[in-house]
Amino acid sequence: EDEQIVAEILGRRFFPDLITHKTWEGFHFAGHEIRITEATDCYGAVVWPSALVLCYFLETNSKQCNLVDKNVIEIGAGTGLVSIVASLLGAFVTATDLPELLGNLQHNVLRNTKQKCKHQPCVKELSWGIDLEKNFPRSSCHFDYIMAADVVYYHPFLDELLLTFDHLCNNDTVILWAMKFRLEKENQFVDRFQTLFDLEMISNFPSLNIALYKAMRKGRMKA
C-alpha cells in the first residue's frame, strides 16, 4: 500500500518536453497544472517530497479537511507548492519564508493562482523566531491551519521554529506538518514539539522516510 500511494504521489510530478532558459517542474494537483520555478543553488527553493505528500493529503482529504474560506499560513513555503494547492482548494493563504526566497516564491504563487483562486494568496517574510508579535500580532492574526513541509532538517534554528509554531497557533488552530526523518538531532524535535502540542500521525510513508502529522495545542485535539 505504501508503494502504491507513493507512486501516485510522485506521479503528480512532470517535466517540460523542451528545455528552456528557465528551469521548472510541473505538478498536477487540485485539478490544475502547476508550474514551479526552482533555484538549485538554494535549499529552500527546491520542491522536496514532503511537499508532495502534504499536497496529496490536502487534495484527497478535501471533505475532512475543507479549506474553503479558511485562513492558512505556510511556514518555510520555499517554492510555494503547498501554498498554491491550498489556494486552489479555496483557502486564503499567507505563504512565508526568508527574504531571499520571496522573489521566487512570489513568482510561483502569482503564476499559478492569478484568476484561478477564490482568494488571492499573499507572500510575506517570516524569519523564524524574529519579530513575530510585530509582524503577526496574536490579537489580529488567527489561522485555521498552519502548514509546514520539510522544515526540520540540519539547521541551527530549531528553537526558533518551535517558537514560531507556538506563536502562530491559537487554541483551535490545526497544524499539518510533513516531516522527512534524517538525523537523530532533528528527529528529537518531534519530542520537543510534543511538550506544547498533541501530535497524531495521519500518514506514514516508510519508503520515503516521511510522516505526515496533525497537531493542536495540548488538550485541544479531542475537544
From TrEMBL:
- What Gene Ontology molecular function terms does this protein carry? methyltransferase activity
Pfam families named among the record's database cross-references = Methyltransf_16
Q: Which InterPro entries match?
A: Methyltransf_16, SAM-dependent_MTases_sf
| Keyword list, A-Z | Methyltransferase, S-adenosyl-L-methionine, Transferase
Offer one example of a GO biological process linked to this entry: methylation
List the CDD domains.
Answer: AdoMet_MTases
Q: Provide the protein name.
A: MT21E methyltransferase
List the source organism: Dicrurus megarhynchus
As recorded in Swiss-Prot or TrEMBL, the protein's gene is named Mettl21e
